[in-house]
């Protein structure tokens, strides 16, 4: 059986995005970060809602109009469509694992 | 920020189902088990696909035609629509936490 915490990439230059399941209107994705953050000049701006759950490691997330907040294991939130947002930091001492549900 | 592992019920007679987000065609749910299993004479039989991820504790899941398998933290699978299935056991030494995505 597949496991969300297996084959976690380490020492990779970019975050890893892995699609776990795709259905009409929804996509489940695992994201693994290793200290990366979203470039200041290239924030995310998505046309769809995204629900994220942090499961391992830690991160900080900035959402335009809402400010920055710290996330630890188990924290989850909805990033509304068209909300400009950035991951401002992720843990540097091991992989940070996210589950993302995209409603598209 | 809400956390998936906060307010975990203990010593409850029934499993707890908590809706985290509902959208047209999809529903995200937290399930907490404390030793419960699905009654032999009342297996699940859903008209929609369900994707489940076990995050804490342990469980065994039987799916008709596929057999029984053990799940630990991080294990995930798709339970196809119309697959008769049962949770045959869940950990008795602490809460078992599932994330379920229902595609309805």
What is the element layout, followed by pairings?
The structure is a homodimer of 104-residue chains.
Chain A: E1 16-23, E2 26-33, E3 49-56, E4 59-63, E5 67-71, E6 76-79, E7 85-90, E8 96-103
Antiparallel strand pairs in A: 1-2, 2-8, 3-6, 3-8, 4-5, 4-7
Nutshell version of this structure?
The structure is a homodimer of 104-residue chains. Chain A contains no helices and eight strands.
Any key phrases for this structure?
homodimer, 104 residues, mainly beta, 3-stranded antiparallel β-sheet, 8 strands, 0% helix, globular
Report on this model:
The structure is a homodimer of 104-residue chains. By secondary structure, the first copy, chain A, is mainly β. Helices cover 0% and strands 50% of the residues of chain A. Chain A is built from no helices and eight strands. The model of chain A has no long low-confidence stretch (mean pLDDT 94). The A-B interface holds A 1-6, 20-21, 23-26, 28, 49, 51, 53, 55, 69, 71-78, 99, 101, 103 and B 1-6, 20-21, 23-26, 28, 49, 51, 53, 55, 69, 71-78, 99, 101, 103.
């Amino acid at each position: 059986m597949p496991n969300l915490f297996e084959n976690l990439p380490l020492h990779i230059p970019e975050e890893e995005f892995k699609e776990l399941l795709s259905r009409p209107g929804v996509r489940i994705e695992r994201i693994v970060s290793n200290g990366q953050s979203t470039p200041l000049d290239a924030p995310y701006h998505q046309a769809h809602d995204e629900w994220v759950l942090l499961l391992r490691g830690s991160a900080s997330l900035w959402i335009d109009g809402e400010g920055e907040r710290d996330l630890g294991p188990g924290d989850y939130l909805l990033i509304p469509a068209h909300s400009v947002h950035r991951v401002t930091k992720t843990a540097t001492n091991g992989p940070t694992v996210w589950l993302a549900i995209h409603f598209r």
